[in-house]
Design a protein that fits this description.
The chain is α/β, with parallel strands linked by helices. Helix content is 32%, strand content 11%.
Length: 225
């Protein structure tokens, strides 16, 4: 059973098998990272063709008899100040990755962090009063080398104030906003228990999702027609 170290004291936390023991699928992770990075591109680049450049309506000189090459417009692409041929135009770079592929890629990278023991949890209640000093000490005591990604829930935004300006912290993100590219780019992941559960729920298919905590997992009998 995979486990994550509890930096707030206590025993290590057992991780969900389905989300944290998957085999690594490199091509699928690469495809998901490309899709997420492409989706962040604005795609607002634009250049002017000869039809968009102001001026150039008059023929620069007569067609014949000057000894020079014929020219029809001073906004020709071969003239200084002229238009651009086949320049970039506004477009979007997004492409689709299926939901099953997204979940599989998320399971792959979560499993890598679990295997490398670069995943840990902490209690965000200890940071209800923001303290960058306490946050720095927590990470230092963990012994994390490299960048750290902090994952919290929307309700734990107060704890984010303690970590957001630390040099070693790559980003502080809500569990619903963490992408594969964020997990790939971070050497370590530090999350609250609730945020880790939310990540596992996102990574699992509906049939793999564990029962909610405290419900006992009881199921009602199916209704037959």
């Amino acid at each position: 059973m995979p486990s994550a170290r509890n930096l707030s004291g206590g025993d290590a936390v057992t991780l969900d098998d389905a989300a944290f023991t998957a085999s690594f699928n490199g091509p699928l992770v690469h495809e998901s990272v490309r899709a997420e990075m492409n989706a962040r591109r604005q795609g607002t680049h634009a250049t002017k063709t000869r039809g968009n450049v102001r001026g150039g309506g008059a023929k620069p000189w007569r067609q014949k008899g000057t000894g020079r090459a014929r020219a029809g417009s001073s906004r020709s692409p071969i003239w200084t100040g002229g238009g651009t041929v086949f320049g970039p135009q506004p477009r979007h770079y997004t492409f689709k990755v299926n939901r099953k592929e997204k979940r599989a890629a998320l399971r792959s990278i979560l499993s890598v962090h679990a295997e490398r023991e670069t995943l840990a949890i902490f209690d965000p209640k200890a940071f209800d009063t923001p303290s960058a000093k306490a946050a720095t000490k927590l990470i230092a005591d963990w012994g994390a080398k490299g960048s750290v990604l902090i994952v919290l829930t929307d309700e734990q935004d107060q704890a984010a104030l303690s970590f957001r300006n630390l040099q070693q912290v790559r980003a502080v993100l809500p569990a619903g906003g963490v992408g594969v590219v964020d997990l790939v780019g971070a050497a370590n992941v530090l999350a609250s228990q609730e945020a880790l559960d939310a990540l596992a729920a996102r990574a699992n298919t509906p049939s793999q999702a564990p029962p909610a905590r405290g419900t006992g997992g009881d199921k009602t009998d199916p209704v037959e027609d």
